[in-house]
Design brief:
The protein is α+β, with helices and mostly antiparallel strands. The protein has helices at residues 4-19, 37-45, 77-88, 99-108, 117-122, and strands at 25-27, 55-59, 62-68, 92-96. The protein has a single domain (4-122), classed as Trna Endonuclease, Chain: A, domain 1. The protein is 41% helix and 16% strand. It has a four-stranded mixed β-sheet, with helices on both faces. Mean pLDDT is 88; it is low at 119-128.
Length: 128
C-alpha cells in the first residue's frame, strides 16, 4: 500500500541531502507510530510533544517546522495548536501538500539551493 505523505517526505529528505545550503541541520522527530500506554507516558515525561511538524530544520539560528501532507490531507487540531505554539516561540512553520510546494517553501526559507532541474526532469515526458 502506497503512503503518499511518506513518499513526499522521503523525496523532500532526498532534496535536503542533495541541495541544502551549508550549515543546515534537519531531522524528523519520530513521534508517530503505535506505542503502549506505558511507552507513551515515558516519552511524554521525556518531553515528546504531539503535533510536531514532520521536519525540523535549523539554519543560522532560525528554526523551521515543515509539515507534509498528501493532496487532501488536513492538519489535526493538535498539529494546528503545536504550530501556533512554535510560531509564538519564534519558529517559522508551513504545511506543504506536494513535493513541489515543499521545495518552494524550503527555497524561500533559504535552506535549499534553488534548482528547477527536478521539475524539468519530472515533466520531461509531458507535452503541452
Amino acid at each position: 500500500m502506497k503512503r503518499p505523505e511518506q513518499e513526499i517526505h522521503k523525496a523532500v529528505v532526498g532534496h535536503l541531502n542533495w541541495r541544502a545550503v551549508p550549515g543546515v541541520f534537519f531531522f524528523h522527530p519520530a513521534n508517530g507510530g503505535k506505542r503502549t500506554k506505558a511507552e507513551g507516558g515515558i516519552l511524554k515525561g521525556l518531553g515528546v510533544k504531539r503535533g510536531v511538524p514532520d521536519l525540523i530544520i535549523l539554519h543560522k539560528a532560525q528554526i523551521f517546522g515543515l509539515e507534509l501532507k498528501a493532496a487532501h490531507g488536513r492538519l489535526s487540531p493538535v498539529q494546528v495548536q503545536t504550530r501556533r505554539e512554535m510560531e509564538a516561540a519564534g519558529a517559522t512553520t508551513a504545511v506543504a501538500y506536494d513535493l513541489d510546494e515543499a521545495l518552494v517553501i524550503l527555497e524561500c526559507w533559504g535552506v535549499l539551493r534553488r534548482d528547477s532541474s527536478h521539475r524539468v526532469a519530472e515533466n520531461a515526458g509531458a507535452t503541452g
